[in-house]
Amino acid sequence: MDCQADWNDGGMQWYEQVGRLEHIEHEDQERNEIMSTFEIHRATKRRAKLRLGMSGPAGSGKTYSALLIASGLGGRIGMIDTEHGSGDLYADLLPEGYDVLSLTPPFTPARYIEAIHALEEAGVSTIIVDSLTHAWSGEGGSLDRQGKIADKSGNSWQAWRQVTPEHNALVETLLQSPCHIIATMRAKTEYVQEKDERTGKQVVRKIGLAPIMRDGIEYEFTTFFELDVQHMAFVGKDRTQLFDGQIFRPELDTGRRLLGWLNTGMDEPQVKHNVMPEEQKAELIGSIYRAGSVDDLFQAFSVAYRAANALPDPDALADLTRVKDARKVWLEVHNSAAYGVTA
User: Which of 48, 59, 128, 315 gets the highest tally of CB atoms within 10 A of its CB?
Assistant: First the structure.
């Protein structure tokens, strides 16, 4: 009877003893099914390309430092200059020289992407983006576009849904580039009053704070330098562990040390290129051709870009890019009154 009573409790003890075992077995089965969809491999240090971010206030030497580091990396240097010709001011700094691509407003993420691809096709080894801040807060940048779209639609959240993928596409382009990338960013500036230890007098000092860019941008880079007005770099993040926590002046040797770390390890495995089905490519081309505005065109091409890169199929991406460029020219000529800024 005691045994009968023990089990006649609405199944509570049965669940505790038998049901829990079945539940655990079911969880184990689900876990095994999930794990089977992932690839697990032994961590291996591989050769890589530099992804360096640098922020600082005006006068901190961001452009100068970027050029020195790029020279230390070796190879041909290309600079995307958004600072009204400042890229040419250091023409005599490097014996080997460097190339400049002047980027003027509107500073949309799409135009940055086109500029990066142009330098890649030109055969440069290192691309300096000077500065990346304009893609966020400049004329035609993400904040500007979000505001204009929100003003027109009356829906700020919906505007971010359109702008965020554009920003993400730019970040992805920086990360996937076959070139070394050095991106400078302006920093929010603040003035502090402090005592000069030598004279005992109060002095005003300018300091740089967070980069003027979307929050969290520093996490996208391998290493991130914060420069001050004395041209000294504080390294808050460094996956190379070469400069972690250090304060120093960036120079040629900084690039050489980074290159040594990047070249240590195995070669990247050869990526097998798949081929996009013709039906899918035709559908993507059709959506690009049907774009009635530059904004619509960017959205259509963003979908096509992600689809081609996911395979990856560089030939399909090249075809889709040519179609996009042709449609962009047509829209700019025949639909100049349509809302949107130039992609």
Answer: 128
Supply the pLDDT for residue 118: 94
What does pTM read for this prediction? Answer: 0.67
pLDDT < 50 stretches in the chain: 1-12, 14-15, 34-36, 336-343
Q: Cα dihedral angle (221, 51, 309, 80), rounded to 10 degrees?
A: 110
- The Cα 268–Cα 211 span in angstroms is 32
Topology of the domain covering 51-262: Rossmann fold (3.40.50)
Q: How far apart are CA 280 and CA 320, in angstroms?
A: 11
Q: What are phi and psi of 191, to 5 degrees?
A: -105, 135
Helices and strands, number each (H, E), in the chain? 12, 9
d(CA 164, CA 243): 32
Q: For 169, how many CA atoms within 13 A lie in the half-sphere containing its CB?
A: 27
Distance CA 70, CA 133 (A): 20
What are the pLDDT digits (tens) for 164-192?
988 998 999 999 999 999 999 998 766 56
Q: What residue spans of the chain are helical by DSSP H?
A: 2-7, 12-14, 20-35, 62-73, 109-122, 134-137, 142-153, 156-176, 252-262, 278-289, 294-310, 314-334
Tokens standing for residue 156: 């700020």
Q: Which two tokens stand for residue 186?
A: 């302006």
Residue 170 burial by Cβ neighbours in a 10 Å radius (0-12, 13-18, 19+):
buried
Q: How far is CA 23 from CA 29, 34, 105, 210, 329, in A?
A: 10, 16, 60, 49, 61
Dist. CA 187–CA 208, nearest whole Å: 5
For residues 267 and 46, the answer to whether their CB atoms sit within 8 Å is yes
